Amino acid sequence: MVKEELRSGTVPEESRKKMMEILQRVNAGESVMGEEEDESLDSDDDENLAVRMADVDLNDSDAIWKKLTEEERQEFRELIDKGGFEDLIPPWIPWWDQHVPKVQVIEPGSQSTQSSLAYTVGCPIMVEVPMLSEVTKTSPSPCIPFNILNVLAAYAWTVRLFNGDHQESSLDATEAVLSLSTVLSANANFEEAAIAVESPKMEAQNHPWLMESEEFANTVRNDVLKILQGPVAADRTYYVRAAISEIHVLLHTSKANLSKKKKPAGGRKGLFTSSFMEGNNDIELKITTLPTVKLAIKKVEFLLSFVKEYSEALLSISLL
Q1: Phi-psi region of 261 (alpha: psi -120 to 50; beta: other; left: phi over 0)
Q2: Which residues contact 47 (CB under 8 A, 6 or more apart)?
């Protein structure tokens, strides 16, 4: 989510050079959208900009904003409106898209543990839970595998929307996950895989800040398929458990923040953000309440226990 990154005041290291290039173009009166490329920049303008930005922390968006002229600020507003800031933020690469070697070489005398396997690198930390039969003696509902797909789709939608920075905006991301997954927020049950995966897209229509294109929705469907397929045949549910585990961590972080009964430190309002964000900079937390989050945590733990014991029921589902 581009505006999330901008209003958080964080500029990735690899984006700083490009930001300065755009600032130079703005300062020189060139098209920041690259419509009229000109490799040569006025040296005086470059020097003027360099002097103004010499002691400015490019991670501090408000500090940068103070140094810009009104004309330059207007250029930035136009850039944001046109989506041009996408070029400043490196696209997040999902951990489930990583290349997994088909054969892993194990040195003689070494012990191969799950934590040393190649496909675990970059994945969320796994949350350990008991078998479902140790938690309840009731037979699991046949809806549970489809409910898991719904939760995975909501998760994939959220992490892509936040460009991988969902944990840094835990309350907002939790609001997204709960809004998108009726399994976690409204005790919904699904009986078909396609409907379960499609549901978050439909729920997003009720929340403008969550709405995305059909192309985005198709990407999320493919994400769910990849997560369900897993990294290797011998451990197909690893990605499913990793994804649900990260939701568990996200919910626990939000629970801690909500338990403080005060807004987390690090307000996002400032000269820069207030100049282009419409209305309130903070996403309204409509369903992210402490009781709802606590209940969602229990549901997530239940789903993890189910996957641990009934993996075959989940893997037998076809999304094609």
Answers
A1: left
A2: none
Geometric angle at alpha carbon 303, from 297 and 306, rounded to 5°: 145
Given a cut of 60, whether residue 156 has pLDDT beyond it is yes
How far apart (Å, rounded) are the C-alpha atoms in residues 5 and 110? 42
Q: What is the mean pLDDT of the chain?
A: 79
Q: What is the distance between the alpha carbons of residues 89 and 12, in angstroms, rounded to a whole number?
A: 7
302 Cβ contact list (under 8 Å, min separation 6): 132, 135
Buried b (16+ CB within 10 A) or exposed e, 278-303: eeeeebeeeebeeebbeebbebbbbb
User: Which pair of tokens denotes residue 295?
Assistant: 């209940």
Read off the amino acid at residue 284. E
Q: For residue 149, with 0-12 CB atoms within 10 Å meaning exposed, 13-18 middle and 19 or more buried, which class applies?
A: buried
- Length of the chain equals 320
- Would you say 200 and 153 are in contact if contact means Cβ atoms under 8 Å apart? yes
What are the CA-CA distances from residue 70 to residues 28, 42, 199, 275 (Å)? 14, 20, 44, 11
Residue 174 near residue 196, CB atoms below 8 Å: no
Query: Sign of torsion, CA 135 129 168 264?
Result: positive
Residue reference for tokens 């020189």 = 28
Residue-by-residue DSSP string for 79-103: HHHTTGGGGGSPPP--GGGS---SS
Asked whether residue 154 carries a pLDDT value surpassing 70, the answer given is yes
Q: What is the mean pLDDT of residues 45-56?
A: 70
What six digits make up the tokens of 233? 């045949």
Q: Report, as an integer, the average pLDDT of 11-17.
A: 49
* Amino acid in the structure at residue 33: M
Q: How confident is the model at residue 306 (pLDDT cuts 50, 70, 90)?
A: very high
Tell me the per-residue pLDDT of 68-117, one tens digit each, with 9 for 90 and over. Answer: 788 877 777 776 666 555 555 677 899 999 877 765 555 555 555 555 57
Give the residue, 275 or 192, on which the prediction is more confident: 192
